[in-house]
Amino acid sequence: MTASTDETGAGPREATTGPTADAIRETCIAIRELDAWYGDIHALRSISLDIAYGEVIALIGPSGCGKTTLLRCLNRLNDEVEGARVAGSVRLDGQEIYARPVDPVALRARVGMVFQKPNPFPKSIYDNVAYGPRIHGLATDRAQLDDIVHVSLERVGLLKEVRDRLDEPGTDLSGGQQQRLCIARTIAVGPEVILMDEPCSALDPIATARIEDLIDELAEDYVIVIVTHSMQQAARVSSRVAYLNHGSLIEVGETNRIFTNPQHKLTEDYITGRIG
Amino acid sequence: MSKIERRRRIEARLGGRHRRERWFRLLGITAVGLALSFLVLILANLVGEGASAFTQSKLDLPIRYEVTASPTGGAPDVRYPDVDYDALVLDALAGLLAVEPDRQMRRELRQLVSIDAGFVVRDSLGSAEQAPGARLTVTVPASSNVDMLVKGQLDRSLPAVQRPLSDRQIAWVDTLRDSGVLVRRFNTALFTNGDSREPELAGIRGAVVGSFYMLAVTLLLAFPIGVATAVYLEEFAPRNRWADVVEISINNLAAVPSIVFGLLGLAVFIDWLGFPRSAPLVGGFVLALLTLPVVIISSRAAIRGVPGSIREAALGVGASRMQVVMDHVLPLALPGVLTGTIIGMSRALGETAPLLMIGMVAFIVDVPTGLGDPATALPVQIYLWSDSPERAFAERTSAAILVLLGFLLLMNLLAVLIRRRVENK
Ligand SMILES: Nc1ncnc2c1ncn2[C@@H]1O[C@H](COP(=O)(O)OP(=O)(O)OP(=O)(O)O)[C@@H](O)[C@H]1O
Ligand SMILES: [Mg+2]
User: I want to staple B299 with a disulfide (CB 3.0 to 4.6 A). Which of B155, B251, B308, B337 is the partner?
Assistant: First the structure.
């Protein structure tokens, strides 16, 4: 399924034709004519985009184009920003997340987020991972909680490294380890979607490679929306790429196609390094 | 611009830049030196004035008493109702000095010891359960005039009419001192007694207990209300015109002269709500009002210092705002909050003016036993004593100031320790 085939037809043109593997996949997140403002700043303009189960979608675009804003609209984190406003529709599994009965607190358990700078809590490694399950009451006893913590750490490949120091502060880990800890903290709650906002921009190349491998593995179980400034990273980890500029979605399509055959002049200028 | 020209220009300004830095350092060192020397001056003066108040001249009197009746039981003052304890003291003194006192001499002898000496004897005899006819050594405080003479603060060369002690009394004091009966001991009364008209009996216990009760009330009110206000303003309140109004009001409140809070307390708590005058409860209310802005402002600063990324991380895994505050923001802000509270409390401990307004300046002998008892506070006690003409009260004033400074030092030390502990984390 592509942005141009939605009912409203308001999305950007996508040149790809013919059925792809994605077309038979079920839609997870359906964004329709989403507008967002910070006070008078119009940060997102009429974004329409479908994100399917099983895909990793990369958001690219020049600085300030609204990538982070779009991401934060998907778990309603922008509700917490003073002066931020949103109009339009975002459906998760067919349910409107901006409708009244949806509690943003419950939504964020389904749509987790990993931030640009690793931000572990200044608590022990164990408590970092256990925090989400604790507040949502996911474990009934200590053994279950231990289990969740171990599985989550194992999943991000951190268990080996920290098994003997679960009581030490999470902030004592290296940058790359901290970011993996943050991912473990996110998946401990068992989300369906993981939003990642430039998760590697504060990391060295080796740590970056590890996170990218991890994204590949996680893609089997989670829908991943990742913001990145690195074309190479987008090419490596994503199945589709969406290009934003000045708050508008310019083009979206399969990763290979976007990088080899961009349909839009702005996209081409961006990926060839002429803007951004 | 050529390379050489660029280098020349940079070097031309170098001298001036270093010179300014040297000047600034010099200025800073001078300022610190000035502040320190004033502090040393004040401390030296206080210690010089007040150190002698920590000792008190006392007499070890051999008391012999005959009572025909057996003890009646109960409190010491009713145990031997028929004994004239003052006479026992006089007899002991006369015996020591080997004199047969007439009326005049008895009066002069009595002036050597504190007017409380009889009570002291009564209490120790009563508690000693001595058999009648036994001899018991009782330590009684000397009168403040004798104490001053012993401490060298009474000029012996003055003509007798200008001295509070006669030639004969001075001779007696010297005799008693030479025979080891009259000695300077640690002044326990200063710490165990309430206020008194007699310097040798006056102590700061009542004032310290009053201050303690007041600060307890202040802490119980100002800490929770202040922290809750700060959390609400920082984490929940919308940022709009009203928030600005509240912000300005609180900042202004912090700058209002403290006596205004005293007047407010008098009008609201005593006149309107009918709380008792001179009570630590009301004092605590007033000091809480005074401390509240300090707690709010410092707590807000501490809360603002918690990085936003921590809040986002917690929100991101689905914590509610309240959980973000309770689980993450407050624990991280706590050291700053506590430091601010302690600074506010130490300010409250030193406050005098508002307490005068609510009647805590009264002369109160009894140590308060509850929040409603009439009480005074340490700084007010200092104010009261500093007003007394007796030389003996002057030294006690300085001693009380030293004690107050000691408490303040302890509180500030605690604030530093808390901050240090967290910075090392
Ligand atoms: N909290 C905020 N308050 C006001 N304006 C904001 C806020 N956050 C973002 N903006 C504005 O919204 C626009 C989009 O910002 P956004 O952070 O989404 O960009 P971005 O694509 O993530 O940029 P970058 O690649 O630099 O991270 C920018 O013009 C930015 O200045
Ligand atoms: Mg961004």
Answer: B337
Q: Which residue has the tokens 């779009």?
A: A70
Residue of the CA atom closest to atom 30 of ligand 1:
A64
In which band, very low, low, confident or very high, does the pLDDT at B84 lie, cut at 50, 70 and 90?
Answer: confident
Q: Closest residue of A to B320, CA-based? A: A105
Amino acid code (one letter) for B41: L
Q: Is the distance from CB of A219 to CB of A190 less than 8 angstroms? A: no
Please name each of the domains of chain A with its CATH number. Answer: 54-66+104-271 (3.40.50.300)
Residue A70 and residue A36: Cα distance in Å, rounded? 8
A109 neighbourhood in chain B, CB within 8 Å: 317-318
* B336 Cα to chain A: minimum distance (Å): 16
Provide CB contacts within 8 A for B62, sequence distance 6+.
B92, B95, B96, B135, B136, B137
- State the Cα–Cα distance between residues A28 and A186, nearest whole angstrom: 18
CB neighbours of residue B277 within 10 Å: 14
What pTM, to 2 d.p., does this model score? Answer: 0.83
Ligand 1 atom closest to A44 (CA): 14
Nearest ligand to the C-alpha atom of residue A61:
1
Residue extents of the structural domains in chain B: 58-185, 205-424
Residues 6+ apart with CB under 8 A from A225: A29, A51, A56, A57, A59, A71, A74, A193, A194, A195, A196
List, for residues A5-35, the tens digit of each pLDDT value: 334 444 444 444 444 444 457 889 999 999 9
What tokens does A5 get? 């085939």
Chain-wide mean pLDDT for chain B?
88
* CA dist., res. B268 & res. B262, Å (int): 10
Mean pLDDT of A200-213: 89
What are B159's two structure tokens?
């003509």
Instruction: Give the residue-averaged pLDDT of A194-206.
Output: 91
Q: Which helix (H) or strand (E) holds B420?
A: helix B391-423
Question: Do A132 and B328 count as a contact with CB atoms less than 8 A apart?
Answer: no
| Chain B contact probe: residue of A77, A80, A124, A198 with most B CBs at under 10 A | A80
Residue A61 CA: which ligand 1 atom is closest?
21
Residue with tokens 């901050």: B419
Which pLDDT value is given to residue B79? 62
Q: Chain B 270-309, CB below 8 Å of chain A: which residues? A: 307, 309
For the domain spanning B205-424, the CATH number is 1.10.3720.10
Nearest to B185 by CA among B57, B72, B81: B57
Name the closest-CA residue to atom 6, ligand 1: A38
Alpha-helix runs per DSSP H in B70-204: 76-79, 85-97, 103-110, 117-128, 144-150, 167-178, 189-192
What's the pLDDT tens digit per position in B204-220?
Answer: 999 999 999 999 999 99
Complex prediction ipTM: 0.87
